[in-house]
Prior knowledge:
The complex is a heterodimer of chains A (about 325) and B (about 260).
Chain A: E1 2-7, H1 17-35, E2 39-44, H2 48-56, E3 61-64, H3 75-85, H4 95-102, H5 104-113, E4 121-124, E5 139-143, E6 157-158, H6 161-174, E7 179-183, E8 188-195, E9 201-202, E10 206-209, H7 222-226, H8 231-234, E11 237-239, H9 246-262, E12 269-276, E13 279-286, H10 297-304, H11 309-324
Parallel strand pairs in A: 1-2, 1-3
Antiparallel strand pairs in A: 4-7, 5-6, 5-7, 8-9, 8-10, 8-12, 10-11, 12-13
Helix pairs in contact in A: 1-11, 3-4
Chain B: E1 2-7, H1 13-28, E2 32-37, H2 42-49, E3 53-56, H3 58-61, H4 69-75, E4 79-80, H5 85-91, H6 94-103, E5 111-115, H7 119-122, E6 129-133, E7 140-142, H8 145-153, E8 160-165, E9 171-177, E10 180-182, H9 191-200, E11 206-212, E12 219-223, H10 231-238, H11 244-253
Parallel strand pairs in B: 1-2, 1-3, 3-4
Antiparallel strand pairs in B: 5-8, 6-7, 6-8, 9-10, 9-11, 11-12
Amino acid sequence: MEIGITFNSFAHKKMLPEERELKATSLAIGKHLRKLGHHVQYFDMDNPDDIKALCRARIDVAFDTCERIHDDPRGEAYTAALLEFLDIPHTRTSSFQIALGVNKVRAKLLLAYNHIPIPRFQVFQNEEEELRPDLPFPLFVKGVACENSIGIDEHSLVTNPQELKDQVHKINTLYNQPALVEEFIPGREFSVAILPGKTNAILPIMEIEFDDLPPQKRFLDYNAKWVTHSDQYKRTVPIYPVNLTIEEQKTISETALNCFNIFGLHSYARVDMRYNDHTPYVLEINQNPSINETGSGYVHSCENHGLNYTEMIEALLENAAQRLQ
Amino acid sequence: MKIFLLKPSVEIPAVNLKIDRIKAILNKSGNIVVEQGLSKYFFSQIIAEKPDVVFNLASIFEWEKTIHIPAILEIAAVRYTGSGFLALSLSRNPTKLLPLFEKSGVRLSPYKVLPAAQAVSTHSLRFPLDLCRDGNPDKIYLADEQALINALEKLPQEEQLTLREHLQEKIQSVFILDSTVLPNSTAPALLPPALTTYRLLEARGLMRLDFTISIEPVLVNINAAPDPLEEVFLKAASSAGWDEQKIIQTIIEHAGRD
């Protein structure tokens, strides 16, 4: 097949850690697609000439790895929208579903409507707003529309009003968006990846091990996701297989699949949860988890499912091609 | 100012007349107007023309695939009229829109979001109903259970759809153009739900909202890309002393990007 890879070159800027990984992922995907016998063309979404070329191109499927347009994460949805407009099937979920999921509050409201357990939350436009009495400390603070764990750091878990004010102020000013303040759910953290296909496959549940870390640091922050030399990265370890009863595994997996269906997703995704008091609380639905060749949770889950990287790429490509039929 | 009139892909005489009126107004105001029908090459055309504003008429007068236009205009980094990609696409997907409205406190008529296969057995709503499909402009009116069964037979059984109780009450249309609510005589009870809905959608430019006229108004319908020259709106705008020139000028002034 003739495959177009839409990607960000980030040629106009000094790359951040997650941007270096995104670019490396695009290159790795191309390498494996060629290994599968496909012809590959790259389209740099940071370059208008490449976008014009994409509008004229004759390609069968786009392997879409673009995550920014003009450095805006909403560009992920815009790129998918352009591909849909051009009638090019792509490997992402639909542009509308991507756009819907960018705002975490909107996603939470939809989950709540569908009776999926979520942490209680409040949105702060500024730090002077009053905290609702049903939200006791400790609380977790993040941006309503930050992705890739941007805005989550060692101060995100707050234990008193002053820390809350400081963190809300940081989100409002540094990231220019409202802050999402959630009750902090203690307990074990799990990720469930879903491999799309004619029947969506729930991949083996992954647990994040925090045991080595002090209680106030038991969460995944930006460093844990992207900064490989950081203490937080080294001490948050994915665990397979998980130590859960069959019943617990079923509850967690079904919750993940319900989330997938509620959002009408039809491509690779990962659902992150905290399991407490026999309840899986959904923290986030990641409609575009990292599929970096080395170190990404989604790829680990595929490997534990018996799929190597090339087979995973092939499965995602086939899923996209089938959607056109 | 250089204005790119992005027209629908299909020529419709009645629509062309309106587009000509808009073009005449823009020319009269001293703007340079470039017009182009929607095609897969419109991104390249916009990059070549470098307009100050794209007047997105395609999303107003054409339904199929026009929700994507604001996303492509964002990629082109050009200001455009009307709502952005999310507001426009959300407004056309009732299975997601209505739950979001409900959870945000907007009053709606009773409704259910459910797969077609389960719609007959589990809806528990009172007839008559409206059947709404995502991405489809037409509501299907269902007088009774048999009409529902007949309608569902034609749909994919796994499709998520929305059933809403059809309200027989009198409807009032409210228009919002950024912070201006039209007509001037809009009942005060309609202002909070209208503005809440507009902000929830993160809408921009002109939007139409239809409410039942009652003590506690119920939102019946929204249109995030209404026709700026439709009679109902022209009448609402005239209540504030706005003529067609003022309307078009205001729409251009409120062009922007997400």
